[in-house]
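G.,

No rush on this.
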Amino acid sequence: MTRSITMLFAGGAAAAVLALSGCGAGMISQTADQVAAVPGFSATVPVPDGGNIALRDAMVGYPGIKGYPAGADAPLQLRIFNDTDEPVTLESISSNDAASVKLGTVADLKASPTPAAASPTASPTGAASASPKASGSPSPAASPSPSAAAAPAKPVIQPGGYLELTPQAGQLALLTGLKKPLANGEGVHLKLTFSNGVVIETLPGTVVPVAPPLSLAPRVPVAPSPRPGTEGEGH
């Protein structure tokens, strides 16, 4: 009797394995099209003639534990991909939370934020250069870094190219004159307008967040509280 039960369980287990493998054959898993979460704001806008313009991992540079006071300047870091067959110009960047947004080299803007962790797929070029589509990694054979020259007021992104505005790339966008204090965990409105009519903008309820720190802040030791009934005891 015991032997029969054992064989029955073994046969059932084998059938279950076959059933599971049969169900999975030729099917796409539910996680096949999922991507890793990133802390920044990302958006993809299709272009009527085909392709899309994609903004990836946009953040405000980490300001330290105190955040940004009202009136301060805050550097942005972001990447824009031109997944179309035509060059596209970044006509303007604006924000409802700042007086203006300036584009230039890190040296020109005199901004030295503590940057968030750089994207592992990005290389420090900062200029529109040939690269794979928005989902791929920028080509390492990019054009020379623009840090030696002034950044163009209206950068042109070539077909299949990208524009990197980060401290690592040598150029960035700078929010000037914040209209209110900006603390860690908060964010700002941002609007990007392109020559092909595409507009990428944070909608109500969404923001470009402040980047997280590269490392945790040191913990401050807390003095232990005296045990009840021991106050005033002498030694």
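When you get to it, here's the other one too:
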Amino acid sequence: MLASNYLEVIVDGLKDPTVDMDAVGYAWGWRGGGRSSATEFQQVSKQEAFDSINYRGAEIGGYTWNKGFRLSVIRENKIRFDETLDLAEDLLFTADYIAASHRILYFPAPLYTKVSRGNSIIHSATMAMRSKEQVVRRHIDEMGRRLTP
């Protein structure tokens, strides 16, 4: 579920051409979370944003559904989703994107509510899918160790 101002906030965060990515707060449906009422963007470091990718429940996270991405960064760096992955493809995309980014903003108010569905792939993943996910997560951790500001 999206708050009525979700798209407006995402667009506002990217109005400044020096901003490469913005993210909004989120809540995990039945689990709650995302309780901040802050209504202003705050700048976050590239390292802080990157470190949140593999940390489940992190405020920014590695998900794509709570972010705005600048198309020029995607094109210039040839960033794509790895379509061979069933899990963690969003995390890898976000890691590649943040690695290529310079300025990142975060709007803490929860404007996206993630609804967990019992029949989603995350709940029915095979061991092979989970193994590939762990390889991706280790790769992201290694990328984070080599990250340049």
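The helical segments are 6-13, 46-51, 71-76, 89-100, 121-124, 127-145. The chain has a mean pLDDT of 90.

Enjoy the weekend,
O.
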